[in-house]
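--- STAGE predict ---
source: upstream dedup step, 1 unique chain passed
mode: sequence only
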Amino acid sequence: MKKKAIILIIIILISVLLFTAYRVKKSQENKIPEEIKVIDNIDKYGYNLYESKTLTYKNKFNELKDVLNSEEIDEEKYAKILSELFVIDFYDLKSKVTNTDVGGIDFILEDIKEEFSLAAENSIYKYIESNVYGERNQELPSVNNTEIVSLEIINFESEKIKDENAYEIEIKIEYEKDLEYPTNVKITLVHVDNDNKLYIVEVK
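--- STAGE serialize ---
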């Protein structure tokens, strides 16, 4: 009799566990990830502003839009703001949905985008937990502010690119909370052919 009671309890426990697992699975299936909307753009340069970006990023994007819509474009200012936008987006891991959601990728030179993304996913982005359903509790860095430390015009050479007027910009990063992520980075931007756009080729 005692043995039958134990077996009955085990069966009930298994049934409860299976039912709970089923309910959890169904609740996850019913949650639809939010669609990411484009809320602004700089058409001529192909830069888009997505609704999911942080307020810090959105404000900096508006600065870039003002610069690029001017009759005479201040290229140094363009280079500075573009570098800050990249840094704000790349190092703000809190706003990322998954570890493949690499920030600032739109500003990277096309030829190295894939390589850059893979490197990020295997390093700084590697341990980001998924937030597809908005339930992540992981503590991640959020960028509050950036500051240009220096700007230099340098001669940049690689296998595919030569630019005697490339920009090397050092940026200081301020986070919402210090979680021991980089606070100073150097960004290298280049001109490609006769394109008016600047492209990031190095981050260190």
